[in-house]
Amino acid sequence: AMAGRKRRLSHEEEENFGRCLSLPGCSDNTARAIWNIAGELREDGAAASRSSAFTTRTDLTADALACYERHELAGESGKPVPILIGVLAKLLRYAARGSPPWATVLDRVFKRDKGRRLSCVLYHDELICGNVLAVRKVKKICMIYLSFRELYASLSKEDAWLTVAAVQASVIDRIAGGMTRLMTAVVKSVHAKSHESGFVLELPSGPTWVRIRPVSLFLSDQEAQRATWSTKGSAGLKPCLFCLNVLNKGQAAASPFQTIDAHDVALFQRYSDEQYFLAAEELAETASKTRRKERETLLGVTHVQGSLLLDPAARGHLPPSSACNDVLHNYFCNGIMTLETFRDMACAADWRRPGRGHSSASAELRRLLDRKMFDAELYKGQGHETARVVHVCHYYVAQSLVRSGKHAKATESFARLRDACAALRVLKHRPTPIQDRAAVRDLELAQARHQAAYVQAYGPSAVKPKHHHRLHLPESALKLGWLPSTEAHESKHRVVKGGMLDHQKAAPPELRHRLGDDSLRVFTEMKLIRQHITTADVLLWPSQGATLTTCGSVWRHTGREILTRPSVDAPSTIPAMWTTCDQDLICLH
Question: What is the DSSP code string of 537-556?
């Protein structure tokens, strides 16, 4: 069937083949095989060879790859290790040219900021594609993303983060200094003189001169902080990146030293950037290995060749003080909220829906509280599931314990944990940037009260390093202007794991039935802007339009006490969105 079909693809065939290769969730070899099989039904159809697929793929990615430059980093074996790192100016031009939402958001940012300066926010994390149980994880990749502080609400969208580098873990292992040397190269690239002096972006309002601020921020979990600045991390004598006088649990801490169970942030002494730089230089100059190891333990810093802390040209652009702790990993994913779930009572309870004592719990509630979701110490659900379980257990289990008088200290600790969760929710849905300490005051108080109650209930030995790390979340929120969370990055990881996640899904059954097409699909376009629609607005789709006549949700005043402190006797559904009007709250139901 293939005889006589070996010829060069025409221009139209190359374009058609390129569309096949661009389909998400489909490898190049699979797309080529399907295209060739379909081509057998065409007269004089040409077969696409491996070289044709390679050439077409190269053409499709040429503009994107042009945004990256080759760097050579010192290798462990003495041989340079090549790395591709994105050029910030080129990445921004590519995003603004190819994505109208990106261009629109940047235009709005510069209308607010006449100085037209952007503050970079960096993030990196490892992910494993393929078999996670494989001994040699050849598909283990470190993804480095970048966005800008001034985007604020748009940063909750995965499309708002640009990929600066994607490096296999096996390649990082070959670099002398590993991750910290790689981040040094990334920081130097981002803060090149051409970026800080300025470059031109073509935006809807016209050509715009843009500059990058000299200091970036770094959003991450504690493991990424350890790898970036070569510190000891949570397992060290000094587990906190920010505190000079906080020691791990089990240490004899005489004043002014504190242990991680302390709840008063006023007692913590700042570990300054200059002290970090001096510590790294001292370790580099220490010749004795024994002496160096002792000093590493006391200073909380590890000597690594090519460390970011040892590079004068890079460390000022990304100092340790620029780090921002992450809500997702501190609280919801193997965080402190997974430690207090009243496991036995939650699993054994005869759950009833609130206000409907005769009706059993929903399937969703039974799934959340299935015994398989718990292990000996932790709740194993995803972040959004953990947040829901905390409220459910407080409304039912904890308040039942209050009535019975049992486990008073544990119940008090759980109530304070619920308060912290509520404060986080308020900040997450805040409609304006976080710009003053008053905005995070409720979170600071709730966390301090929970820390004290937790120690009273379970003892200092039960405290984890994350109990201390979360005390720096208000400070991180003030740095960023929004609640620091890596949910968007985890979502972006899933796209990478899927080899470009399929963004299509089946259309609703009624629409497929009405149009008589069971293969009808719907897709989600990239959006960075939160939009509001009202009655009489005109909505346009590619092939039809509509006028909005009625909205299904309404805004109404809700008492603050009812909203923030519901109970079994006075249940209240917490709304998805709310705003403030003087001292009142207006909620969307």
Answer: -EEE-SS-EEE----S--EE
Q: What residues are paired with 247 via a beta bridge? A: 259
The Cα–Cα gap between 505 and 24 comes to 12
**Concatenated DSSP letters of 299-334:** HTB---TT-GGG-HHHHTTS-GGGEE--HIIIIISS
pLDDT digits (tens, 9 = 90+) for 451-477: 999 999 889 988 999 999 999 999 999
Q: Residue 102: which of 145, 147, 70 has the closest Cα? A: 147
Nearest to 314 by CA among 185, 227, 225: 185
Report d(CA 76, CA 414) in Å as an integer. 49
Q: How many residues does the chain have?
A: 589
This prediction has a pTM of 0.76
| pLDDT score of 550 more than 80 | no
Residue 503, C-beta contacts closer than 8 angstroms, at least 6 positions apart: 24, 523, 524
Q: Where are the beta strands (DSSP E) in 406-547?
A: 504-506, 521-523, 538-540, 545-547
pLDDT tens digits, 323-355: 999 998 898 888 887 777 665 555 555 555 555
d(CA 137, CA 125): 15
